[in-house]
Amino acid sequence: MNLDVRSLRTFSRLAHSGAEKAADSLTTLAGIDTYVNVTKVELGTKSDVENEFAERDLVSVHIGFSGGLDGHTVLAFSPESAERLVDALMPGIDATDAEGELAESSLKEVANIMLGGFIDGWADYLDTTVDITTPTYVDDENDGPLDHIEAEGFENGGDDEHVLVFRNQLEAADNAIEFDLYMVPTASSIETIVEASGEDGALPVESFAAFSEMINDGANQASEDITAMTGIDTTVEVSRLSFVPIEGVPMSLTDAVRRGVVLEFSGTPSGYIAILFDEPSAENIASSLLPGMEGDEAMRQSAIQEIGNITTSGFLDGWANALETTIDISPPKHVHDIGSAIIDPLATDLAQSQEYAFLIDSTIRTDDDEFTCDIYALPDETELRKALKQLSPAA
Q1: What is the pLDDT of residues 215-266, one digit of tens each?
Q2: CA–CA separation, 100 and 94 (whole Å)
Q3: Using 50, 70 and 90 to split pLDDT, how confident is the model at 152?
Q4: Over the chain, what HEC string results?
Q5: CB atoms inside a 10 Å sphere around CB 176
Q6: Angle, in degrees to the nearest 10, between helices 5-30 and 79-89
Q7: Is residue 186 classed exposed, middle or buried when 0-12, 13-18 and 19+ CB atoms within 10 A define those classes?
Q8: pTM
Q9: Which has the closest alpha carbon to 364: 263, 294, 285?
Q10: Residues 6+ apart with CB under 8 A from 343
Q11: CA–CA–CA angle 149, 155, 158 (5° rounding)
């Protein structure tokens, strides 16, 4: 499977257009104004995709597709959002009732129309015919978007096989309903789309996979560095690479207040990195580094800057070693604001030279949730292309 940054743009536009059609369908069906919040193209392993579903309590409907395009789609709601949607469609019906066959049927019909319209857009682009399966209702949070796949192209791959996931986050205008629309095409279908885009210079997926492994290694090193500094055991919960429209980068973060540092890195690749903690985590980590200094805000800010600096170095040093290059890091700048406001100026700066961004998202946490550290990196697209070419097996 080969990929190209320009092909990823095509994928993102198709996915966003399809999600807008799905949102329009829900607006018509339920009378709920719905819009697409953000569209991401995520590269991860099959186990990454399944683990994300396993960690969330979801009500979902799964539909496979085959023909000119093969793969799987999922419409996933929190139980609360599913209940609100069913109530809008069929007032008085409980979506969480185990015997609520009408609720299940209602969600399946909504998904059939929304996901069918989503797939039709891809079929039109490829000038082909795509058949979809009967919707499958799933209320077990352990079932992910690959568990029910029947289409050829998935069943022989192991958990470490890399897949592309098109993830669209949608929500109602009043925020009462939020849900995700997932599409996971097979590797052969990705090749079909790449060929249809007519782009030259596509790189083997191994290049992206190798970079993804660099991200994971960097997150593990950062986790070890945090543990060494604080004496608190930490683990990497998630580490992934997403391709996002530049304006969608701030929307990838919640509006919860965060505290941490922002740094700029330069070399191959170059870009920005933010090390962010929620406020309780920032307090806990500062206290672990400076016990008894609760009243000295300047010292606590300095402690957060120092751990941000060390974490960034651990995260990026592995990149420099793998690419046999030097990556310089600016002094850390302390930040304290809502997450989207912290990331927005970084995305705005990159938007002067690119329309899309590779967003690197890693989460480090303690087993008892004493603190959580989120790492967000935004490499410059031109420099990242150079890095990906160096990682190509043919390089």
Answers
A1: 888 898 999 998 888 888 888 877 788 889 999 899 888 888 999 999 999 9
A2: 6
A3: very low
A4: CEECHHHHHHHHHHHHHHHHHHHHHHHHHHCCCEEEEEEEEEEEEHHHHHHHHHCCCCEEEEEEEEECCCEEEEEEECHHHHHHHHHHHCCCCCCCCCCCHHHHHHHHHHHHHHHHHHHHHHHHHHCCCEEECCCEEECCCCCCCCCCCCCCCCCCCCCCCEEEEEEEEEEECCCCCEEEEEEEECHHHHHHHHHHHCCCCCEEHHHHHHHHHHHHHHHHHHHHHHHHHHCCCCEEEEEEEEEEEHHHCHHHCCCCEEEEEEEEEECCCCEEEEEEEEHHHHHHHHHHHCCCCCCCHHHHHHHHHHHHHHHHHHHHHHHHHHHCCCCEECCCEEEEEEHHHHHHHHHHHHCCCCCEEEEEEEEEECCCCCCEEEEEEEECHHHHHHHHHHHCCCC
A5: 14
A6: 50
A7: buried
A8: 0.82
A9: 285
A10: 249, 250, 252, 253, 274, 376, 378
A11: 120
- Over residues 255-310, the pLDDT tens digits come to 889 999 999 999 888 999 999 999 988 888 888 888 776 667 888 889 899 999 99
Terminal CA-CA length for the chain: 17
Share of the chain above pLDDT 90, in %: 20
